[in-house]
Design goal:
single chain, mainly alpha, 3 helices, about 0% strand, rod-shaped
Length: about 130
């Protein structure tokens, strides 16, 4: 019985001596995991940004041609291209003023909410992954 206690205590001392090294390995692997998670987040957001940018450029070109066509059409209706382009310019100016005045509710709040929800989803995924590891 005495021999068994000595063996168990020796095993416990060995485990305690290895504990700092195990903690160091755990910390290093956690740091590496967080780096990989950050790289994944940057890659996902970069891909989304490029996709949105390309889409926005295509929509902007389409809108330019549509507005030019509308201005020329109104020019035929008014019998003056100047009045056609002027009417489209006034319409765009009014839309710009409205967008600026409603900017907070229409653009900024949904964008902020979208960013917060994306970060929340990432935090939940990370917690789920950590719970699965434990």
């Amino acid at each position: 019985m005495e021999q068994h206690k000595k063996t168990t205590m020796a095993g416990d001392l060995t485990t305690l001596r290895e504990l700092p090294a195990q903690i160091k390995v755990w910390i290093e692997s956690t740091i590496e995991y967080q780096k990989m998670k950050m790289i994944e987040l940057i890659a996902i957001n970069s891909g989304k940004t490029v996709s949105i940018l390309v889409s926005t450029v295509c929509w902007a070109i389409a809108a330019l041609f549509l507005l030019t066509s509308a201005a020329l059409g109104l020019g035929i209706l008014f019998k003056s291209n100047f009045l056609g382009f002027l009417s489209i310019t006034i319409l765009l100016f009014i839309m710009g003023v409205l967008m600026k005045s409603l900017r907070g509710n229409i653009i900024e709040k949904p964008l902020i909410n979208s960013i917060i929800s994306n970060l929340t989803i990432l935090d939940e995924d990370e917690e789920e992954t950590n719970n699965n590891i434990i």
